[in-house]
Fold this protein.
Amino acid sequence: MQVKKILIILFFSLINFAIFAQDCKDIVQRAEVAYKKGHFNDVKEILVEECIKVLPLDTEKEQAYYLLTLSNLYLKDTDEAKKSMLNILNQNPEYICLPESPVIFQKFYNSFKITPFVVFGGRIGFNSSQITSTKLYSLDNIDNAKNGSYQSKVGLNIQAMLAIQLYKKIDLLAELGFKQFNYVYKNTQFKYSKIEFTEKQSLLELPILLKYNFGNNYNFKRRRKNFWQHFNPYVIGGVSATYLLSSKATIKREDKFFDNTTITLNSSEFNITSMRNPFAFYAIGGIGLDYKKYRGIFSLECRYSYGLSPIIKSAARYTNTDMALGYGYLDNDINFSNLTIMAGYSIPLYRPKQIKEFFADEVNIKK
């Protein structure tokens, strides 16, 4: 019996809601007619909050709050006008004030802040490292170490990003990411032995950057009428720190003797994390391009990170005897720099608020 009562109550509730929704169906049209006649109090009576909430389309809700805002302004009720304007901006923070809107509405709209208080996003891309030797080491004649070469391999970049606007076109960016450095070192030692050392590093990275925007992603006072108006080129500069999570290496050694006999040794994977400095620091510069579409921002960026600190832990250079004696490999002192290309997507978050007082005498402007 209890279940039956609940079902009956739900049934009649749905019927009442359907009737109520039907009664609210044409409130925007009725409010527009009242507004054009100058019956602003009638507009407020028609556009009650309960009816606006059940409107099926966001555009209808936006138009309802627009008419409410205008009516309250002409009635000089700026407190109520503020509430209805905030309803517009909370529903659609990127609301565009049309140039054909009454001047009174445009002035009131301009008293609100509509730039985002924070932008969240993510990036993914790839990097290529440039390895610079600052001091050479070898078990052979040190001059032979000069013949060694470093070859970069592609590494992965994944980053989360947070940005806040500091001043007009300048943003502060903080990122937290995962990245890989991969490279191969090749050399010939003792005139008969070729070695190929492959290292893969996994790191956490924390860049702190300033971004200068040549365009404006948040100019909602004009419509973006053509394709190019959606773009915002920018430059970045700053610093970053990395923390080494792990470093793994393999070595291939090939010895070729006078009788053309060849012996090839392939090592198992070495964990050489303890032989690397855990922290490294970089200076960063780059260029990028944002593409604003609806609420989201797509970006493509190229940045260069210049290594400021050594990668090799000098005190641990000789600790792995298998690498040194078994394969004839010693680390040179090296720095990493890298070129990174990333694609990203970000979403601005808004907290609309009125930033300057709207004086009552401005309401005297004619409709």
User: Anything to note?
Assistant: Residues 11-22 have pLDDT under 50 and may be disordered. Residues 116 and 350 are 4 Å apart (CA to CA).
